[in-house]
Every structure is written in C-alpha cells, then in structure tokens.
Amino acid sequence: IDPEHSKIVIGTTEGDFADMVRNQVKSSLEAQGYEVELVTFTDYVRPNIALADGDLDINIFQHKPYLDTFKKENNLDLVEVFQVPTAPLGIYTGKKTKLDEAYKGMSVSAPNDPSNFARALVMMDELGWITLKDNIDPLTASKADIADNSKYDIKIVELEAAQLPRARDEVDFAVINGNYATDAGIKLTEALFQEPSFAYVNWSAVKSADVGKKWVQDVTAAYNSDEFKKYAHDTFPGYKYPKIWNTADQA
Known about the structure:
Elements (H helix, E strand, L loop, with lengths): L6 E7 L2 H15 L4 E7 L4 H8 L4 E6 H11 L3 E6 L6 E4 L13 E5 L2 H14 L3 E2 L13 E3 L6 E5 L13 E4 L1 H6 L9 E2 L7 E6 L6 H10 L2 H10 L16
Parallel strand pairs: 1-2, 1-3, 6-9, 6-10
Antiparallel strand pairs: 3-12, 4-12, 5-10, 5-11, 7-8
C-alpha cells in the first residue's frame, strides 16, 4: 500500500469498465489495505475534467486518440498509464437487420465525439457505404474527408455515445461503442460488423504528477494480474485485450 495515498478514487463510464472495478479490481486493492471509491459517468467529457480537477485519482474509459485530443483542446496535464480490455466499436441493427438491406437515403447513427466519429466513418468506408479521401488519417477522419456518399446518400445522425443504444429504433443502422452496447444488454456477437483494425484499446489515465507513484503501480498490477486476466476472458467474450497480454491470453 502507498502510505501517502491509501484511498483511490477511480472514475469510469457505467458498464463494463465499472464492472471491472466492482467485481475484481476493488477487492484486489482492498486486500492490500487501500480504500477504493468508484465514481461512474454517462458521458465522455466529465471523467477527464474530474481527473484534472482532483475529484478522481484515475479514470478508465477512453482510447488514446480521444485522450490526446481532449487534453490538447482543454489544456489538461493527463497521461495514459495502462491498457484495459475493451469492447470494439460495431454496427448494430436499427430498423434494418442485415447489412445487405442498406438502401439509398438510409440513416446511420454514430457517436458525436470526433475520434469515435472518425472510427464510424472508417467502418462505413470499409463496408463500401461511403468512400473516404485517399491518404486521410483514420484517427481524425471527419465529414470533410468523405469523398463520395452518392451510393447510399447516408444520413449520418450524430448522438452522444451513451444515447446510441436507446435510439436504435429511430435509424436504419447504429454504430455503437462497445461499452455502451454491453451496458444496454446488447451482445458484441450481435454486431453486424466490427472495426477490423484496432488502435483503440482503452487506457487508464492519471495526472502527470502521479506517474510512478506506488498506488498507480498497484492499480496497474491489479489490472494486469492473472486473476484479472481470467476474469476478463471469462466475462467479456469478443473484447480486445491489452497489447502486453501475450497472444496466449487471447486464445
């Protein structure tokens, strides 16, 4: 235990990241003598603000492209520490139940934050629904990078990520973040399509000043322990895993 920091306040979005704390990480850290408090959020903005303001010690909810963009735009001194099992972004049924039911003028919902919206555009490009300009950065793709939308003339409906599962019956197809899909009771195996490339395994983040502190090392160890790995594999089928977990873990 870190004698200078015996209480750890962890912030996550509601859903799988919160469950990881409740069901595994909290007891692991408490066994070492820490007091652990979990604070959950339903959006992607407040967890970083709360961390920067000192209301949290660490947060776990975001991929690195989102963190990099957010801390630059808001001038926050935050840094990523370790990766966590992450549900991939997927396209799910709305009014339509099969990808081959795509039609001209269809509506597709997508997360409205820039980095996840970029992922949605890349998926639509890979499906042949739209064509993106050559040589664009897939991490920062925007509507301005759509070269051709004439095949289906898609109406892209941008929503807060947490609202995407609830709005499925209002659109033909829905691009949903994995954690919000699972939180809404949607199985990842129900996705009609998942992003094949994966630069988006999620990270924990702390204030830069805390990097290297004993409590951060202990939280990192809890998330990389054999007990946590087994829990993750048993509980979250279809997830992507941290790069430092060897390939045998992913079998």
